[in-house]
Structure prediction request, 228 residues.
Amino acid sequence: SISQHLSAKDSLQPSEEKVGAFTRIIEAMGFTGPLKYSRWKIKVAALRMYTCCVEKTDYEEFFNKCQMPDTLNSWFLVAQLHVWMCLVRMKQEGRTGKYMCRYIVHCMWEDVEQRGKVMGINSVVLKEDLKTMVENFYAALFGYDEGILSDDHVLAAALWRNLFNKNCDDPRHLELLVEYVRKQVQHLDALSGEDLLLTGEVSWRPLVESDARSILKPLSPVYNDEGL
Prediction:
């Protein structure tokens, strides 16, 4: 039957490693290859997802609770934590999700550079700052990945190094952030991958809430035929 044919075909999707040279050439020429949706749609969704990391997060609450200075770097450290959680979720969506991840990170660097310019940071200084941020970002991704797959001690150590810049004397602050990351990742896991690829729309649970265990399955977002 058709359904059997589809399921067999779908299970034979090429893995990231096994995509051949021909597919890569086709992709380089702008054809979508085995991606699920058009690149343009994925880029729009990636920008939306990055925007959700920036616009739907209460940065002041983070600065206050974590006792962070109100600087571009502090803003970036909180943004990068949310971007990382989005990357963790989208990596579960195969090649299309991984392509979206690349674009989310691209949007982030463009935004950081723009914010630096708006703040009037000298271009030479900004270039150095960005270089440091890039190095710290990939180190943080590695640390957070290890933390989310390990126990709370490893995740707490990663947050202490990366978000708090090794500057946190109150274990309750770390405990709060570990719980925040765990519930947030769980919340993102409950969202439909299809919806995320089409809309990029994510929501965040509050940093402090009365019942952190009450994770409800969120409603699917509504989008039109264009997938936007």
About this structure: The longest helix spans residues 123-149. Residues 36-192 form one domain.
